[in-house]
Amino acid sequence: MRYESQKIAQNFYTFAVLLFLVQVLVGIIAALQFIWPDFFPLKFNIIRDLHINALVVWLLMGLMGATYYVVPEESQSELWSIPLAKFQFWATVVAVTAVVLGYIWMGFDPQANKFIAGTLLLNEGREYIEAPRWADWLIALSVILFLLNNFMTMYKSKRWTGIQGTLLGGLTFLALMYLPGMFYSKSMVKDQYWWWWVIHLWVEGAWEVIAGALLAFMLMKVTNVERHVVERWMYIEVALVLFTGILGTGHHYYWIGTPRYWLWVGGIFSALEPIPLLVMVWDAFRTTRTHRVVSNRLGLFYATSHAIFNFVGAGLWGVIHTLPQVNKWTHGTQITTAHGHLAFYGAYVLLVMSMIYITLPLIRGAENFNTSRGYRSFWWMTISMIFIVLTLTGAGMVQTYMERLVGLDYVTVKANYNLWFWIFRAIFGLGFLYGVTLFVIDFFKLGREPVEAVATEPSETTV
Amino acid sequence: MSNKGIRNLFIFGSIFFFVIFIGLTIDTMKKVDKRAPKITEEVDAGKKLWHKYDCIGCHTILGNGSYYAPDLTKITVNKPEGYLEKFLVNPRKVKPNAAMPVLGITPEEAKKIVAFLDWVSKVDTNGWPPKPVLARYRVPQIPGATVYEKYNCKACHMINGVGGTSGPDLTHVGSRKPDPEWHKKHIRDPQSVVSDSAMPPFPQISDEELNQLVDYLITLK
Ligand code: HEM
Ligand code: HEM
Ligand SMILES: [Fe+2]
Fold it and tell me: What is the mean pLDDT of chain A?
């Protein structure tokens, strides 16, 4: 770390890591509610809202922290305003806490979610963007301040690099794509049409652009690869992401009441979406192989795993159900859940974790740190996630066959045929929770405990 | 190509695809209203209640949402209004082991929600959800079973694992309810024998069909 202001990243990381723990805890409650619907005072919908909102918020916080690290470094200057960054951080924490309390309140008293001035007070009742309108505005304000701070830093230093340009381009796209979720449509068809602009253009557009930029940054940080090489591949990756991903939105417009041509547009373009993700894997491997100077093996290990599981979870698990001929049968089944978990885990959870493992040691001035907990946490999480996803894929195949092809009742399939899958998901969820706990402990101890344990892994200190 | 060239390709190529996307969006917005019935005030009020109670936190609709509860896209095709309204107000009174909680929906609110669900069921979804192509179920060659099929009792009831779960499983109803007279009254007007029953009345069944149907039901032991 070279700039004092990069330390601000730690605030964001800390909040992110704590929310990650909350997300997984409530995920396990949700999993148990598939087996015992009434065992917890808050009903499934509230628990699920907490699970997916905590996920999105902690990933955003992680990406913001990472950006506050990257931009001063790339601009070679201190951040434009540290107080503004701090204000923006605390404002977000307060807004997020208020939203969470609102959900819990609504969980105990659904009637508390009233319409006030045409918008709902506690929960908008739209998946992922459940946060009420007043919170939308606070979040938007926070993101605008965040972008302003970073743009001003770049503008003052007059050093524009490809990496930070792409990173901030992706973040601006992210902020803009929040807007289509902020108005009411009387038609449920239009409602879902615009809703997918937010959800799809985030995860398969803006966020992947951000991932491309951060991958380039990380590769450059831990190997001696030349900037112009990583930036070149970064441009190719993010270009292919948007060329396929924008029209790929059509894979959500097959069956929601939109015209039939979307079957062609969505099918063709989304089937090409795995290509840039494969290029990213190749990029990570090529760089590691040809540039042997590695400063942070654990960080590079996480970054490479991110590239691989981004391809597997988003690319492979996405493409298997993206053609209309397949999606007609699997749409809205547990196959979607399987894909959702592996994609988010591989693409964004591992991305934020690798940024943490690459930048946190530098922030804390601990070039050498005990990596064994970091590896153990990776294996506990990743193996548990693979089994969760295989379990859900099994449940999805049974559901598609029994419900969609044979025509049995949804509730029957869920309660009888799929019961064992729910049990196994909950068990593997505990394994995942153990991995997250290790990670959280590691996060707080990294660089703050004696390093002698490093001696047991000599390769770490010699390279 | 230089890095700058690739960067420009990225920027202008992305704008190009976004412009096409906006064009298709404009065209879609023009067409979607024609692919669905008119939105009345009641439908809109129902949609607002749908959001208020966060139904999407458990259900999918048009295939999107949560995967904890059945998809509601075509729910009003097989389930009559009266039944759905009773279910929404108190799922556990209609179905004692329902996983859906009592949300505090009033009967007036339920009417609006059902109007909204009925609107959704009439949207042209390009044929989704598809008919099950591997349905192996054959109607038993008994006159009563044909009547049971004709009036779609299986939308709500299950016999030997086939059918819906809204009403009780009828696989052994003959041993539970052996009295044919009870069944006749019940089918014609469920509320006359089960107070506040959510099962719809079937006045349209002819006397002959009713006899066959009841003969069939009491053999289910
Ligand atoms: C990092 C990138 C990605 C993430 C995080 C992601 C995540 C998700 C999530 C969470 C859903 C479910 C949305 C809901 O709850 O309604 C979903 C749906 C879907 N995704 Fe992805 N996805 C990614 C990339 C991809 C790619 C590259 C493809 C195709 C090649 C794809 C294909 C699909 C399809 C077809 C659906 C709809 C499933 C259905 O019909 O029910 N996804 N995605
Ligand atoms: C980092 C890890 C995780 C990520 C990224 C993640 C992500 C998601 C996402 C995006 C959804 C909503 C979309 C969908 O259903 O496809 C979801 C739903 C859910 N998650 Fe997770 N999750 C994670 C960990 C867990 C764990 C450990 C459990 C518990 C075993 C869990 C249980 C659930 C359940 C039960 C649902 C509801 C699914 C449904 O509606 O059928 N998740 N999660
Ligand atoms: Fe998508």
Answer: 95
How distant is the Cα of B124 from the closest Cα of chain A, in angstroms?
5
- Concatenate the DSSP letters of all residues of A322-366 into one string: TSHHHHHHHTTSHHHHHHHHHHIIIIIIHHHHHHHHHHHHHHTT-
Q: Whole-angstrom Cα distance, residue A298 to residue A306?
A: 12
A154: Cα separation from own chain's centroid: 26
Q: Where are the alpha helices (DSSP H) in A202-333?
A: 207-222, 227-248, 261-271, 274-290, 297-309, 317-319, 324-330
pLDDT at position A452: 61
Is the separation of the CB atoms in B66 and A336 below 8 Å?
A: no
Whether pTM exceeds 0.80: yes
CB of A422 within 8 Å of a chain B CB? The answer is no
User: B165 CA to chain A: closest CA distance, Å?
Assistant: 7
Query: What is the per-residue pLDDT across A300-357, written as a single tens digit (0 to 9) for each?
Result: 999 999 999 999 999 999 999 999 999 999 999 999 999 999 999 999 999 999 999 9
Q: Which atom of ligand 2 is nearest to the CA of A349?
A: 1
- ipTM for this prediction: 0.96
